[in-house]
């Protein structure tokens, strides 16, 4: 029988973020805030902390992102062009759209939501 | 053939929020930031703006919430007790868990994510 799922409260500033060590990434750490490990059934909330000048990979994949910029600023590659982003912006990156997040001089923190599964059941990376 | 889905950037402070007029709600406005209208396939991001002393309904339902407190503070009823919340907190409300958000003296703003469908296909309210 499944373990009882519990409600959860955590603060963005009180988590341990681990370096993201994949190709095309520079100066990025990640912490799963709410995810499969908390028995989230549909989507996962990850926090990304990007050093000044750092960036996520330039890539696309078969699932979407919903993003909230929580601190700092920079640019996002979206709809084929670099666009400024700042705290309070939200970004929808549809599936199969090329994208890349870059931190400005003050660094960049954002939340990125993804489905917990893809391709009819495989775990989504980082979810 | 489906219309091409576009990437989207919006700011939390630059939207029109409409009053939430359902039983048990006091002083709450909502704006869908990313949802079905933007062809979000899996989950919807809604912004809630709660006046000082306002609150969401005390209720439960068959889908989960993932919440980010973006401004102000107050309390949330979760796991059977009132708990303080403040900017930067994230909250996971599992399905079928009773919950209620209450704004403190400074008001409360939060993002609440829900699946876009429930019960095998019906649209989730507000998604």
Summarize the structure in words.
- Two copies of one chain form a homodimer.
- By secondary structure, the first copy, chain A, is an all-beta fold.
- The first copy, chain A, has a domain at 30-116: Jelly Rolls, CATH 2.60.120.10.
- Chain A has no helices and ten strands.
- Chain A has strands spanning 8-11, 18-19, 26-34, 43-55, 65-78, 81-86, 89-93, 100-115, 117-118, 122-123.
- In chain A, strands 2, 3, 4, 5, 6, 7 and 8 form a seven-stranded antiparallel β-sheet that branches.
- In chain A, strand 2 (18-19) and strand 3 (26-34) form a beta hairpin.
- Chain A is globular, with a radius of gyration of 15 Å.
- The mean pLDDT of chain A is 95.
- Chains A and B meet through strand 1, strand 5, strand 6, strand 7 and strand 8 of A and strand 1, strand 5, strand 6, strand 7 and strand 8 of B.
Q: What order do the SSEs of chain A take from the amino end to the carboxyl end, as H and E? A: EEEEEEEEEE
Structural class of chain A: mainly beta
The most extensive contact between chains is: A-B, 41 and 42 residues
Helix content of chain A: under 10%
For this structure, what is the CATH homologous superfamily of the domain at 30-116 in chain A? Answer: Jelly Rolls
Q: What is the helix tally of chain A?
A: 0
In the predicted model, the low-confidence regions of chain A spanning at least 5 consecutive residues are: none
